[in-house]
Amino acid sequence: MDSQVALLLAQDGIVNGAVYALMALALVLVFSVTRVIFIPQGEFVAFGALTMALLQAGRTPGSLWLLLALAAVTLLVELVRHQRGVAVDWASTALWAILLPALAAFSVIFLRPASLTGQAAATLLVITPLGPLLYRLAYRPLAHATVLTLLIVSVALHGVLVGLGLFFFGAEGFRTNAFSELRLDLGGIPVGGQSLVVMGTASLLVILMFLFFERTIVGKALRATAMNRVGARLMGIPTELSGDLSFALAALIGAVSGLLIGPLTTIYYDTGFLIGLKGFVAAIIGGLTSYPLALAGALLVGLLESFSSFWASALKEVIVFTMIIPVLLWRSLNSHHVEDEE
Amino acid sequence: MIFKKTLPLLTALALASVAHADINVGVTVSATGPAASLGIPEKNTIALMPATIAGQKINYIVLDDASDTTAAVTNARKLINEYKVDVLLGSTTTPNSLAMIDVAAEAQTPMISMAASARIVEPQDAKKRWVFKTPQNDIMMSLAIVAHMADSGVKSVGFIGFSDAYGEGWYQEFSKIASLKGIQIVANERYNRTDTSVTGQALKILAAKPDAVLVAASGTPAVLPQRALKERGYAGKYYQTHGVANNDFLRVGGKDVEGTFLPSGPVLVATQLPASHPLKKSSLEYVTKYEKANGAGSVSTFGGHAWDAGKLMEAAVGPALKKAKPGTLEFRIALRDSLEAVKEVAGAHGVFNMSATDHLGLDQRARVMVKIEGGAWKYQP
User: Secondary structure of chain B in the HEC alphabet?
Assistant: First the structure.
């Protein structure tokens, strides 16, 4: 192996690592706020990429029908809850279940955007509300259940979404048009424009998330909910809404990741799972709580994957997933055990 | 889901049929799950099979095994015990078919598999004597590739395949024949169907500087290594296996797969076959029927294997009917015997000549070399 091969592998690892980093970010966010280990995170990636692909092919993506159906069911559920005398927050319900789905349907069916940015925006509009809607239907009724119960719900939801993915998008893969056809030559190393787009967008999202959590009142409220749910509620933070918001962010990050890797590789209805799983390995390195450690973990996973595919391609996945064992050992030896809230 | 809905109807049909002694054909295909892109055209093909053979009404009971081995076995048991089928067609994948052998042999029901591995019918023993299969063995396709490589002066080959039974099986067959022909394998890499990047493997192959690269993968995931190599400027010859022979591969591969060589069943280029080709007529028949039902350009080679299973059954039912009545053990034995005696039956993929030791029955007529030119399959005489 010479230095050029090493640099190429490192570049590949960093690009993949950037996507895993986004996954890890979303997983840490959702877990810290709602205690849900969100296995279906990867599905948002596949749904995002495939929705984009179908829009580019001039077809109406099935994910739109999923969104509209979920929105209708959510409205029905909220109505029933209202009838039973539960206080329903109608403003947020209107946003997630009426306004955004209506906008998505309008842009997909009537506007039929032809530009790359328009299609990307329509895709984000379709995928993002799926997060809060799924949260309200699948997780909110169990908000006080144990982490294990929530994990079981996640596994079930993953199965349902993969099945729906096959139904909506078919068994064959798609590849979307690249955002940038640019090809640079940096000191003899060819760099694709799309790789730069991936790294740039991922870094931008990370910085935005950082600013959001550190500088805005909503972000601080989310962090407070993550730290202590009861305490946050006592301080007047509507903790129910934080679930909506964290799932919306997770879905948004998933959809963006899908848009980013869509042009780099062929995406299938079930591609998301492995991407999400590798993001999960990265999130575990961060103990499911630390954003910076999760980001570092994601880069480590990406690099490890790319170098092991060079040296021992048949054992690549084994190497990546085996890494979780020493990490867990190290974590369990080095951190004192924190009891669950319940 | 669709199957679930029609289940009561099918049950009624099946029960009614027992009384009339129609022939019951049990089908299990992988219409969902990872093998869905193979299973769906197979399922569509079942709908094109004849409603009567030799004057007997045929009932097809189609179940989905979701590419899952356990489900395939459950389906096989259900078809045999509840629907009293006379013959089993399926399943789509090798693991599923291997698992079904025990069930078929135990119930003494002939089974025709649509999966590729030679292990399904070889070596013939007390159990596998009940089992037949229609797709070409990997070794036939390997031979075609190696012969083509040797003819065009390829001396060294880089191999990259799926890190599963498909890639491993191909490596074994291919390396055996390649060494006989004096072709050296200079790189041997693996990747996963779900991988999003194969840069590492591509770099390793590039470093070995082979004359040609063989990608042993199936379906659209086979595009990935070829694209990675193209991006890094590899200019040698590209070979793919017959596992990519569907139009989705062309759609996803686009200009990156231009100029690729692959072996395939003749059905892929049925319209381009010379009139003298022994399969011209029978291949075209399938293509015409399938595209009439499912739209132009929808045909794939995978459905052709199901069609061939139907052709074998069609040829065997007539002689078997003379010996026994459908729904009895005697009929199933007679059907097995006449499947084994099938001679010169032309299907979509090849001409079948079965024998007690060969339950595939295909010969060199069952494969052609194809080149991808201008985004389409081009027959190579």
Answer: CHHHHHHHHHHHHHHHHHHHCCEEEEEEECCCCCCHHHHHHHHHHHCCCCCEECCEEEEEEEEECCCCHHHHHHHHHHHHHCCCCCEEEECCCHHHHHHHHHHHHHCCCCEEECCCCHHHCCCCCCCHHHEEECCCCHHHHHHHHHHHHHHCCCCEEEEEEECCHHHHHHHHHHHHHHHHCCCEEEEEEEECCCCCCCHHHHHHHHHHCCCEEEEECCCHHHHHHHHHHHHCCCCCEEEECHHHCCHHHHHHHHHHHCCCEEEECHHHHHHHCCCCCCCHHHHHHHHHHHHHHHCCCCCCHHHHHHHHHHHHHHHHHHHHHHHCCCCCHHHHHHHHHHHHCCCCEECCCCEECCCCCCCCCCCHHHCEEEEEECCEEEEEC
B167 and B45, same structural domain? no
Spatial distance between the Cα atoms of A49 and A53, rounded to a whole number of angstroms: 6
ipTM exceeding cut-off 0.85 for this assembly = no
Instruction: Report d(CA B63, CA A341) in Å as an integer.
Output: 47
Q: Tell me whether residue B175 is in a domain.
A: yes
**Interface list for chain B against chain A, based on CB atoms closer than 8 Å:** 32, 34, 36-37, 40, 160, 163, 189-192, 194-201, 203-204, 207, 219-221, 223-224, 231-232, 246, 248, 251-252
* This prediction's pTM: 0.77
- CA A307 to chain centroid, in Å, comes to 25
Q: How confident is the model at residue B117 (pLDDT cuts 50, 70, 90)?
A: confident
> Hey, what are B192's tokens?
């996963």
- Who among A12, A163, A173 is closest to B199 (CB)? A12
Question: How many angstroms separate the CA atoms of A244 and A143, rounded?
Answer: 12
pLDDT classification of B288: cutoffs 50, 70, 90:
very high
Per-residue pLDDT at B16 exceeds 80: no
Task: Quote the CA–CA distance of A182 and A64 in Å, as a whole number.
Answer: 32
- Whether B125 and B15 map to the same domain: the answer is yes
CA nearest to B194 within chain A: A271
Parent domain of B104: 2-136+287-362
Same domain (yes/no): B198, B105: no
**Residues from chain A contacting residue B3 (CB–CB below 8 Å):** none
Q: Do B207 and A313 count as a contact with CB atoms less than 8 A apart?
A: no
> Residue B263 phi/psi, 5° resolution?
-85, 155
Q: Does A168 touch chain B (CB under 8 A)?
A: no
B222 lies in a domain? yes
**B23 in the same domain as B80:** yes
Can you give the residue ranges of every domain in chain A? 3-334
Distance of CA B283 to the CA centre of its chain: 15
Which residues in chain A touch residue B197, judged by CB atoms under 8 angstroms apart? 12, 15-16, 264-265, 305-306, 309
| Residue A171 with chain B: CB contacts under 8 Å | 36-37, 40
**What does the pLDDT look like over A276-330, one tens digit per residue?**
999 999 998 888 888 888 899 999 999 999 999 888 888 888 888 888 888 888 8
